Amino acid sequence: MALQESGEMYLETIFVLSQNSTTVRAIDIGDYMGYSKPSVSRALGLLKEEGLIRKDKEGYIRLTQAGEILARRIYERHTVLTKLFIGLGVDEKTATEDACRIEHYISDTTFEAVKAHMKQHGG
Which of 2, 38, 66, 105 gets the most CB atoms within 10 Å of its CB? Predict the structure, then answer.
């Protein structure tokens, strides 16, 4: 399944929010991402159709097993790339923003090489 960048951003946001709270609501996602309720609702509907999230009877959003695997992968890319860029001397804000863009497009091969390089050089 090839998820678009925006879908990946939503999954990553749900993952991050779920690390800090046992409940995640659509309004929390919208507030975090700066998106309107209709935009969030549409995106969540698409993620639900893909089997990546589910809503419980109270309306709380949870990642499915497949959704969590994908969200963890995206989040790992974000954190590793941010750390790499900061290590290269890029300021934290720019490093985070660039990592956020690149995380959706970097190949698995290149990302694994980056991780190996960082591990080898103490990163």
Answer: 66
